[in-house]
Amino acid sequence: xxxxxxxxxxxxxxxxxxxxxxxxxxxxxxxxxxxxxxxxxxxxxxxxxxxxxxxxxxxxxxxxxxxxxxxxxxxxxxxxxxxxxxxxxxxxxxxxxxxxxxxxxxxxxxxxxxxxxxxxxxxxxxxxxxxxxxxxxxxxxxxxxxxxxxxxxxxxxxxxxxxxxxxxxxxxxxxxxxxxxxxxxxxxxxxxxxxxxxxxxxxxxxxxxxxxxxxxxxxxxxxxxxxxxxxxxxxxxxxxxxxxxxxxxxxxxxxxxxxxxxxxxxxxxxxxxxxxxxxxxxxxxxxxxxxxxxxxxxxxxxxxxxxxxxxxxxxxxxxxxxxxxxxxxxxxxxxxxxxxxxxxxxxxxxxxxxxxxxxxxxxxxxxxxxxxxxxxxxxxxxxxxxxxxxxxxxxxxxxxxxxxxxxxxxxxxxxxxxxxxxxxxxxxxxxxxx
Amino acid sequence: xxxxxxxxxxxxxxxxxxxxxxxxxxxxxxxxxxxxxxxxxxxxxxxxxxxxxxxxxxxxxxxxxxxxxxxxxxxxxxxxxxxxxxxxxxxxxxxxxxxxxxxxxxxxxxxxxxxxxxxxxxxxxxxxxxxxxxxxxxxxxxxxxxxxxxxxxxxxxxxxxxxxxxxxxxxxxxxxxxxxxxxxxxxxxxxxxxxxxxxxxxxxxxxxxxxxxxxxxxxxxxxxxxxxxxxxxxxxxxxxxxxxxxxxxxxxxxxxxxxxxxxxxxxxxxxxxxxxxxxxxxxxxxxxxxxxxxxxxxxxxxxxxxxxxxxxxxxxxxxxxxxxxxxxxxxxxxxxxxxxxxxxxxxxxxxxxxxxxxxxxxxxxxxxxxxxxxxxxxxxxxxxxxxxxxxxxxxxxxxxxxxxxxxxxxxxxxxxxxxxxxxxxxxxxxxxxx
Lengths: 434, 434
Fold this sequence. Notes:
2 copies of one chain form a homodimer.
Chain A: H1 6-31, H2 52-58, H3 60-67, H4 86-89, H5 92-96, H6 115-121, H7 141-148, H8 150-155, H9 158-161, H10 187-195, H11 205-211, E1 221-223, E2 228-230, H12 239-249, E3 254-255, E4 262-263, H13 270-275, H14 279-282, H15 287-291, E5 294-297, E6 300-303, H16 314-317, H17 325-361, H18 368-389, H19 399-433
Helix pairs in contact in A: 2-3, 17-18, 17-19, 18-19
């Protein structure tokens, strides 16, 4: 047999390398959705198009996984997507939210595709509810905001807008039509970022994979008679800065019955808690890395739009970085157990404070200055606890920060209790000694 | 020029690979200390030899780095090896340890080579101090325990044993002579492990790289009149299990003056805190991985015996696993800040409890049953705080556990304050209403 000459060997090697490169390039191009590989989209999608099914024709993998958020009904230990009553799980919440709607109806959130159905079913909505409550529940809002302006939208009543709200959360809540760029769609987020001196148009794609979640997963309130949607971030997004904002503005969500405390209900501040120097955030991990892990359909690689707890897809979610997935899952479980234990202690302390406040408030001779101090302590304690309680991760998004905040909340709640007791004991003693 | 034939090319490749392997093998063998590469040791070391300099002749790299622990005098933000008064840094400690020696003299620990000098200099030692206090301060103890038995050793007075204690902490505290195997040398650790059903002789080398630190870096107490050294681990090494042990045995380190609480002083429970499911521990990281990182002297690879804060050698310590060392150091700083802030809140709560207890205890009419409950709450709160305060990492060894324990301590301290106020208010009211 003739030996191949060196030049033949070299030529063969060059051919193999070139052919390999060509095949890899073709596979990569094939893996991209049609519009992104230069092929005209199957369907032209209008700006702010509310109907996700139309976008889905161009992006079948993203859309078909997104549809799964409709069926998800699995609970994790402390969360998940099943329709579970938080009030039944932890009856302390009925006391903590006494006098406001969350004491009547407070369920675990289900998937994005269930958003519209669930907001219409909740008993927290009534004829006085503003349309603002639709802000984060529907893919119709970006086009309505563009058409009416957010202030006009928020002025409407919830039920008056219902005819124009037909779609649950969808593509238009996070994407620019056709370019599919991740964008800030909620004017309240735009305004909050501007107030912080930030321009999201300069953010990296990885930053946007966290910031788009802040279109909704944040603490917010309805400002003034217009019920204008505002994120309380003027001082910053830390709990102390948000608490200061509410103290400065004197805003109140409700008055605690009999205790008389002016209260704040926290919503779902996932963005604020996660970005407060959490380990994962500081390591450069975006929300989408864990909640929308990259997946494959044959040669096509795409981020799963079946947005849910990473614990329900740990191999894809945690496994992208952690070689030992069972270690990562066990860590999450342990951390959530520690936060949960501390959260229940905080609730007990708050309830003790509320009892003492009620007693003092019903005492006509109570020291009013001490009583006012006790109420401020109660408000500050409960809004801190709720910042972690309403945040959907049982502390896992930022374990040390969650536990630091709960420790502070316990301290403030017990001080509220002490101050309330002092308010009525002072009166009792003064009267007894008279 | 003649082209080399294929057979010549193949032969050359084989020679290069074999020669490379030979060189690598020789370098590896040369990197091992003489006794471990089959060469007889330069010096024969007797079992439990107290003089580290003798071992050092066989292990010059380990010994020379160990000697550096004598010079270390650098502070980190919350620790390090400089001789700093903790009482001056945080005067709350003077109140919290009132009535016992730590309120008079409580310094940051210096390096291992300074152990003997520092234990003799502390004003916590006096003529009643038992020899037990030498247990972890000298390389003489393993041979003395072997000779006298630990019970006989612990029965002696500190100053009576001083003539036989000539060496600071050294090789014999962790190593078996000649084999250099890591071993449990402290009989109290042996007994505590046996009580937990554990046999350290079956542990892996990686486990031993944590367990040998538990020869000293643990909570302990002196049992009975013999001042017998005991680790309170019968129920387990978690804080709740240790607290239960002390509650069951009724042990008391001191009586808090005027408040009357029966107190526990925690020592340095680094082992218990770290192994309570910390992230690093669960990931398989041993104490020695961070505090004694592998280093090189030319071809020789060895673990640095300059045992100190990893923050003072972050490239070697954190960098062995974390590609971004500045990220790891920043995380440590942030976590320690969060724990420190929470620790100071706990101290304030404890001091408030102590003030209320003193007032109640000085009130002859105070409700004695409520006062007893308040004292129990004070004891339980303070021992939890001290478990984290006396642990030398400002929570970094186990951030979530540290914050969980501090949150519980705040809650218990405020409950102690409430109960003490109730104890004397009840009396005051009863007397006023009479």
